User: Fold these one by one.
Assistant:
Number 1:
Amino acid sequence: MTNRPLDFLLIGAPRCGTTSLFHYLRNHPDLFVPAAKELPFFIDDELLARGWDAFFRDYFSAAAPQQRLGKLTPHYWDRPEVPPRLHAQMPAVRLLALLRNPVDRALSHYRFLVRRGVEPRSFEDAVVDEGWKKHQHYVPLGEYGRILDQYLGCFPREQLLVLFTDELEAAPERVLFTVQTHLGLNLPFPAKNLERRYNVGGTSTRLPWLVPLVRRSPLRRLWRALPARVQGALGKWYFFEIAPKREVPPELPADLRRRLVDHFRPHIVRLEQIVGRPTPWREFRE
């Protein structure tokens, strides 16, 4: 198949349900999405050096000529170098952004890293420590208006479709019809997996000692010897199926939530200007 640019790209945000959307999109017969979700071409120096032709041969050569080509890479979210690079090579690409209440997104991101054994602090310490702009990007990644303006500085507004996690969970058929229209598809999305949510996290981990133990033991060498695809599959199975405790999460302290809401409010105001309608998150309007 002849090399051609992407037709659409999901740019983020992380911990907003992008894996579920990835699986829904892969089911459409007129779309081709590589099986490997995280392939950040535009921020990987080695991939950029090899060029798009080589990347296309590696991941898109199996696509049929009539299929639209797409990628889902939340790694592009809040990477200011990506929009100009992307526009220079693919100016007509259609963009998708899937967004969640930014306070809840930050907390989900934090719990994910706790389960991975790389975040020892409390959530409050993690987001307050050295200010909002530091540490794991819990807060900056939720500054949606600022981040989308990076893309709108390079792409016309009509090429961007903003989706909300709340609506995808409540009415996936309706949201996917919007995606269908944005991408110019004639056939509707198959409904066979729309009831399933993928990569659902939890409040904590059942085995907090396991990952640190593997990192300190000879097992680490065995893990590194596994192919990257096997590591990815085993990691997802462990972190999203085996390890999570799915309990009712404790509420954030009211003062901390209020401070986060106040921080995010101007970014949500800008987001609503971009999408031309209110977000589902009423607390930012109260």
Number 2:
Amino acid sequence: MTVVNRRKLVIGAGASGVAALALRNASAQTPASPAASPVAGEALLPVVEATDQFNVLFIRHAESEVNVAPIPGVADDGVTYPLTLLGTQQANALAGTLGNIPVSAIYTSTRTRCVQTATAISLSHVVPLTLAPGIVETNFGDMSKLDIEKVYATMGAWAEGDLDAHTEGGESLNDQLKRFLPEVQAAIDTYSDRPETLVFVAHGAVLAGCLPHLFTNLSPAFAFANGLHNTGIVSGTIRDGELVCTAWQGLAPQ
């Protein structure tokens, strides 16, 4: 079935003020804790249970090298920025959390950190991966020249409804929606008649930007204000012909 998002863009008050928080939590460099452990990663994972209806999960990848120490001049493409040791442990914990649910398919961003995270789920469920280039991370331009304050400002503009805003050499949110939504919608159309769970493994910034334009009950301000942790999960289902978010990293969607 084709799920049509009929909601209008919902803009929350003070959206520009959440951009820095969103980027730190969802996509940029987050220093690893020396005391971090698999248990710490597991503590962030929600309880995911099997149901008798179609469900969809959007999952942010586990901790990778780009979250710890991006290398100047090294682009985020190809086989760059694999998972850290903690990230590998987080991916395995994630696979365990999803172990009791029937998975229909697993779509992953082509970035190494997502493929590695998705592989852990694939192995535990014996479900092959489908590469989905349309859900790769937001391109903010040349990483070696990245001005983080301009990135914050751009994300704030997206939260306020300016979907054409972009950093120098980077994508606008409209650019991302043009690649993200068709790929995701096609997968949902394929699997929505099955009482199983469809899984997407992607990135914090692209999920925060695009999911409010997929789910009918999710606002951009809320998504940007509640950046996904590594292995953070967004769940959804279909109600009355519309795709709705049922939980955003354990929070009720707004």
Number 3:
Amino acid sequence: MTGHLTLGVDRWSCSTSYISLGNRFTFERLAYRVGIQKSYLSRVMRTEGPNLSEDQLYAIAVDLGFSAEESHFLQLQLAHARSGLRARRDELAATIDGLRRAHQRSEAHISAPAVGPAELTEFFVNPELILTHMCLSLPRLRHDVRQIGSTLGLSGEELTANLAALERLGMVKLEDGGYRVQHDRMHLPVDSPVFRAYRSMQRLKSLERCQRLPSDRAYSFSVAFAANESTRQEIKQAFLGFLATVEKMAQGAPDEDLYQMNFDLFDWSR
């Protein structure tokens, strides 16, 4: 067997997941490295035989390149599957679910530091303040702030108020005739008390902007589809991986223009 290997325990997702290993991988090779028979490993993977031992599962995780965190997660799942004590199984299930939920949050996949619940409330509930701040990261606008006003559709008074607020919040600093951004990478956690307000205001501002732009400058995609919960989790995991890729791409790109990307995934029927 080559290509994909399906594990009986999941790798951070709520459903069975797979790991792409390329044509160099075979069951026989993995069994040899772990020190077990190929037929035994095949039965385990088909959930037709006993579970792997802790040492065997550890060896497989190492061979497949799992991180220490992922290996620990697998060991917890194995312990849960083998435990005969209801109280311990419940405790392990709660631990597994907590780790899974933590891994499904955006901050587990990006390096931008999260801000605390009381920090910068004024900043995150004002989309024009956020956009003004981001515009100041562009060299061509940093020394000519009047262009920011025309770009965002702000009056001179509104722009002046935004710049003053950003200075007061410590987000920018005026030096050498221009503004220098002090904090250019932040993440607002979903459990922040201002997250819902932030999300609503950002969505409204995004829609307003998209309505004004020609179709070739505002790409939008929306789809409603029928699936199940495990598929939703797989889609979310795929997006979180994409998010980490986007962050690296944005960090390595020259600061020439300002862009925004939105993504929504939610249910209608539950």
Number 4:
Amino acid sequence: MTFTKDEVYKVCKQIAPAFGFEPKLLYAFCLQEGGKDQSGNFDPSVARLEQGFYRRYTEPMTYATTTEVLLSASYGILQMMGESLREVGYFEWYYQQQLPRLQSFLGNPLSEIAVAKAINFYCDHLEVMVTWGARWLKKKFQLAKGDLKLTCQYWNGDKTGKYYKEVMEKYNSVK
């Protein structure tokens, strides 16, 4: 399943105001992060394992190895890290959406099965990806006290300003 640029921008227009963002800005992050197929459509199945992140942050956790690896990768239109999704409550939200019988089967929001199912759901639903990405962006924006350049650094880890420039180029290209 892929999403066109128009579909993604339309969802950004719907979701961004709820988080206090201009739709163009949220869409610029989608353009920067989102993997695209040969026709230029967004492909949410693109995932990247961040090996350094895994070794440093999630390997020492007490989760099942599968969960640790899934938390160490980035997914979807905004390439959200599994750990970032955990921090903003996505896995708990997904778990709470399930019927009690399925919750019993899953065990807990961060079980091997629950995390895999939640990530699959996340990557299949454009509104979910954009909403939870906007939630994470808002967290970084607040941490940066409204400084967009610092927000970009907190989002990506780039201290050179290159990432900020790339996002702003995309922002300025949006009509």
